[in-house]
């Protein structure tokens, strides 16, 4: 199987190493220091005290890599428009595009969403460029339950978690979706097929739409965030707003915020991906995590005053650092 990783950061690199070791022909679209590192030293993964290194083909030009069986998009959401504009040469009529990303994807309401089904989310794909560049027929949704970080360009460190959830946006149990799950299992991942991938996306978002931006603003690890009674109370109120939105969309969450906090606490003290981006001076994916939730609230007529406050404060902070587009 020919697999191309578009975005060889923490998650993309982790996936790429294991797929290459499982026998896939792995390539990557990369730029700058990451491209140079991949071309000279290959892709390296530190996991469970073992160092894995694989040689992959890397290029800044998708035309040099050709049509793939699977393209894994593992970039942060702000880079997605550029990916959509460049991905065409990798796509054949049967190519799968697996989205291994955080937050609400551009295809979230395609064939799903009760009365708002089919709506294009303005906060994610305002002009429809992403949907045009990555046709819906290619897409397989994904949810990643793993924590990884980048030690250096092309050098990835795995911290915990091995879960991958795969699902068709339509909710159908297709042969191609099961085939990709099987391939991921062969590569050593704890992969499963979802009957409703939007619900899995929403549940993961329910936990990280608050802790991520708060960590980015404060520099605090997850344990310190949840140990502050006032901050935890604020987070819980935002989560209740998101829970109400999910109910209107047909993806109810059968938990209370404290149930999810208990799960997060079990992971110990760690830096969220957004805090890692802030520390590295990278653009943050605030729209996919928070702006889209606010928009979905507007579409479903659910009031979101606390989500609005979280968005306003976090984007003001990010703009001050040059990590979010100016108004």
What is this entry, summarized?
With 327 residues, the chain is of the alpha/beta class. It has helices at 10-21, 32-41, 80-86, 129-133, 175-186, 197-218, 222-227, 229-249, 257-266, 273-280, 286-300, 305-320; strands at residues 2-6, 25-29, 43-47, 50-54, 57-59, 70-73, 96-99, 139-152, 155-167, 190-193.
Written account of the structure:
The protein is an alpha/beta fold. It folds into two domains: 2-195, Rossmann fold, CATH 3.40.50; 199-320, N-(1-d-carboxylethyl)-l-norvaline Dehydrogenase, domain 2 (Orthogonal Bundle), CATH 1.10.1040. Helices cover 44% and strands 19% of the residues. The chain contains twelve helices and ten strands. The protein has helices at residues 10-21, 32-41, 80-86, 129-133, 175-186, 197-218, 222-227, 229-249, 257-266, 273-280, 286-300, 305-320, and strands at residues 2-6, 25-29, 43-47, 50-54, 57-59, 70-73, 96-99, 139-152, 155-167, 190-193. Strands 1, 2, 3, 4, 5, 6, 7, 8, 9 and 10 form a ten-stranded mixed beta sheet that branches. β1 (2-6), α1 (10-21) and β2 form a beta-alpha-beta unit. The N and C termini lie far apart (44 Å).
């Amino acid at each position: 199987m020919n697999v191309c990783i578009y975005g060889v950061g923490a998650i993309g690199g982790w996936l790429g190493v294991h797929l290459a070791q499982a026998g896939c022909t792995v390539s990557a679209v990369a730029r700058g220091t990451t491209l140079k590192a991949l071309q000279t030293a290959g892709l390296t993964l530190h996991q469970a005290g073992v160092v894995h290194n694989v040689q992959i083909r890397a290029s800044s030009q998708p035309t040099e890599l050709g049509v793939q069986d699977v393209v894994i998009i593992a970039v942060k959401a702000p880079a997605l428009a550029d990916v959509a504009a460049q991905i065409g040469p990798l796509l054949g009529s049967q190519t799968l595009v697996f989205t291994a990303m955080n937050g609400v994807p551009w295809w979230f309401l395609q064939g799903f969403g009760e009365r708002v089904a089919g709506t294009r989310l303005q906060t994610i794909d305002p002009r429809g460029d992403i949907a045009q560049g990555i046709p819906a027929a290619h897409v397989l949704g994904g949810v990643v339950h793993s924590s990884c970080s980048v030690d250096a360009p092309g050098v990835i460190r795995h911290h915990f978690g091995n879960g991958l959830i795969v699902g068709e946006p339509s909710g159908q149990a297709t042969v191609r979706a099961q085939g990709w799950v099987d391939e991921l299992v062969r590569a050593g991942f704890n992969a499963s097929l979802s009957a409703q991938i939007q619900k899995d996306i929403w549940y993961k978002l329910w936990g990280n739409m608050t802790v991520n931006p708060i960590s980015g603003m404060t520099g605090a690890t997850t344990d310190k965030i949840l140990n502050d009674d006032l901050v935890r109370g604020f987070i819980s109120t935002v989560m209740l707003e998101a829970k109400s939105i999910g109910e209107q969309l047909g993806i109810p969450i059968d938990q209370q915020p404290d149930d999810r906090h208990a799960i997060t606490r079990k992971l110990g003290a760690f830096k969220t991906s957004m805090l890692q981006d802030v520390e590295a001076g990278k653009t943050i994916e605030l729209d996919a995590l928070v702006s889209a939730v606010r928009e979905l609230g507007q579409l479903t007529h659910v009031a979101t005053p606390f989500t609005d406050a979280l968005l306003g404060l976090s984007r003001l902070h990010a703009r001050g650092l040059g990590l979010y587009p100016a108004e």
